[in-house]
Amino acid sequence: MTVRGAVAYAPRRTGAGTNGHVHLNGHRGHVDGTTTQAPSILTERTLVLNVTYQPLSITTVRRALLLVLSGKADVVHTRPGAIRSSRMSVPAPSVVRLTYHARAPYRRRAPLHRRAVFARDAHRCQYCGNRAECIDHVHPRSRGGEHTWENVVACCRACNVGKGDSLLSEGRYRLHRTPYAPEPLAIVAAMRPDAPMEWTDYLPRLRPQPA
Question: Which residues contact 58 (CB under 8 A, 6 or more apart)?
Fold first, then answer.
């Protein structure tokens, strides 16, 4: 892949390792002669910020690099790895900031589903702090509670069974933090196991909210 005739990603060939693999032109070669495509750093993800540092989108390293090389964005943070050519080496961007003001896209509320709730609550029970195994309606649906971000939390099975259909005011259960509707981009980032830690500096809704 070339970028305006200047930059390409082409891993160097290395000798066979202890696992019997060699790397050549972005492919992994096996000792039996077969090859598989090695992941390219160009397909990794980059957070794009507006000129005001407002998060706008999550795109590929390739697209972010095109913005940087065209003067439309500056690199704020880099990630391990680089895109190399015979004449230059460019660090792979993790976060870029536009050099102009872009109109922020309209975003609906983040879809509410089990994986998203677990991501928001860091896979921890919001009653006892143990590992979450299911979700719970703080105000039970059987008593008029709604299926909304503000009324759903991750919890363990023991707390789910113990709380039952009772209200918080009727029992010993207390929330560690108040449930909230996260930013859609924050949920996308939280659900990515490879999301760089620096993204949370610009997606503050990923941080714990006070109870």
Answer: 45, 46, 47, 48, 185, 188, 189
The pLDDT-based confidence of 39 (bands split at 50, 70, 90) is low
Spatial separation of the C-alpha atoms in residues 83 and 10, rounded to whole Å: 8
38: Cα separation from own chain's centroid: 22
End-to-end CA distance of the chain: give it in Å, rounded: 49
d(CA 76, CA 52): 13
Residue with tokens 């792979």: 92
pLDDT at 98 over 80: yes
In this predicted structure, the answer to whether residue 106 has a pLDDT above a threshold of 80 is no
User: Residues with Cβ < 8 Å from 193, sequence gap 6 or more?
Assistant: none
Confidence of residue 32 (pLDDT cuts 50, 70, 90): very low
36-to-1, 17, 18 alpha-carbon distances in Å = 18, 16, 17
Instruction: Please say whether the beta carbons of 8 and 2 come within 8 A.
Output: yes
Q: 166: left (phi > 0), else alpha (psi -120 to 50), else beta?
A: beta
If you average pLDDT over every residue of the chain, what do you get? 79
Give one DSSP letter per residue of 24-35, joined into a string.
ETTEEEETTS-E
Residue 163 and residue 136 in contact, taking contact as beta carbons nearer than 8 Å: yes
Residues listed for the chain: 211
Q: Is residue 67 classed as helix, strand or coil in its secondary structure?
A: helix
Q: Do residues 63 and 46 lie in contact, with contact meaning Cβ atoms separated by under 8 Å?
A: yes
Closest of 153, 204, 147, 144 to residue 175, by C-alpha = 153
